Amino acid sequence: MATKFMLLYLLPTFSVAVLSAFFIPQPSNNFYTDELFLSYSNVTYLSNGSDTRHWPELEFNWRIVVATVMGFLGSGFGTVGGVGGGGIFVPMLTLIVGFDTKSAAALSKCMIMGASTASVWYNLRVPHPCREVPILDYDLALLFQPMLMLGITIGVSLSVVFPYWLITVLIIILFLGTSSRSFFKGIEMWKEETLLKKEMSKQLKTANSRGELLIDTMYDPLIPRPEKTPMEIFLFNLRWKNIAALLLVWVSFLLLQIIKNDLVVCSSWYWVLNLLQLPVALGVFGYECVKLYTESKKRRNTGNPESVCEAAIEWTMPNLVFCALCGILGGTVGGLLGSGGGFILGPLLLEIGVIPQVASATATFVMMFSSSLSVVEFYLLKRFPIPFALYLMFISVLAGFWGQLFIRKLIAVLKRASLIVFILSAVIFASALTMGVVGTEKSIKMINNHEFMGFLGFCSSQ
């Protein structure tokens, strides 16, 4: 029911926002001059096609100190929530450090890649909180990663077509919706945890003489599991076959993007390479859909209530189509914003019944692939300064690891996995505020400068 209300909120508001852009008058032929700037989502262009670039020097000053603190906190909380933090990094790098929006988006990807890689490394050394399975759900990763990468390609293309104010409005609508839904989800989980803790307290008082207690199954198994060494846990969490499939998708998209960058926009080969992304993404997604659908149907027919993977939903065709659309939407937002797509994937995993620890680990695992794809491409195109990128990645790696360590220890003490959900909601809400402030300020400047505020042609604006 909550998902239906979320869709009823997003569809009308998105439709009104997009349709309103069509009422913006089209520019006249002599509207542009050689000195007029055209500003889009993550790209700032001159009318002759050259792009402005502003790279501050990496030197110790108050800007670096503030950016370090914000980057550390954003990376730490962002990876714990499974959303990355791109909605915080891009405004920070533009407003505080002084980068242009195009370079800020590229550096944001570097920070997300560093934080998510450190988070994955930490999670590979952690056992599943209540089952004898890897903490990374590889089935969900294979289901969402191809659609996420396909969506990122769409989002990057739309970022130079959609007017800046419209992107800002769409992001605010989406972020407010997902953050609100995640917040209420966290409240529900908090209440459930409170009831469980009260039940455990009663059982403590009525424990038998041998001290046998009922243990909360959200954090500990009913049957004690044999202790594993850190190396055994690490090897158990690795599934090389699934990782190879994810790497295949990653390499395929990377090669297509690299080749596409050397082609003339809107040429025949340009469209051929764009369309080649569809069989790559849909092939892996379709294989995983068939696997989940077949296994789910088999278990329902045999009366087995156990879910196929971590998601507590039935893998019917409508649910699979819904997941595909959400994956594409998450990637599109990531392409528009310069984030890793976790702002959709994190809340979605919680919505389909994945427990917070696994949702966070799986979302950061998928983001590691999507963000690293962009980083490699940006590096080949020389879109960011190497010293700054290495410094920010170093900060993000530290934050990703220590953020996971601190929050997981806190959850173990308080027995409150809902903390992850509240962190996720807070990061998305903070991103909505920062993107809203930056977007509003920039849109006002564009209005004062009498810049064009409508849609642009795809081929002419690339």
UniProtKB/TrEMBL annotation:
Domain of life: Eukaryota
Transmembrane segments: 64-97, 144-177, 240-259, 271-290, 320-346, 358-381, 388-407, 419-438
Membrane topology per record: Multi-pass membrane protein
InterPro entries: TM_pro_TauE-like
Signal peptide: 1-21
Annotated GO CC locations: Cul4A-RING E3 ubiquitin ligase complex; membrane
Assigned keywords, A-Z: Membrane, Signal, Transmembrane, Transmembrane helix
Compartments it resides in: Membrane
Biological process, per Gene Ontology: protein ubiquitination
Family statement: Belongs to the 4-toluene sulfonate uptake permease (TSUP) (TC 2.A.102) family.
Protein name in the entry: Sulfite exporter TauE/SafE family protein
Organism from which the protein derives: Daucus carota subsp. sativus (Carrot)
Lineage: Eukaryota, Viridiplantae, Streptophyta, Embryophyta, Tracheophyta
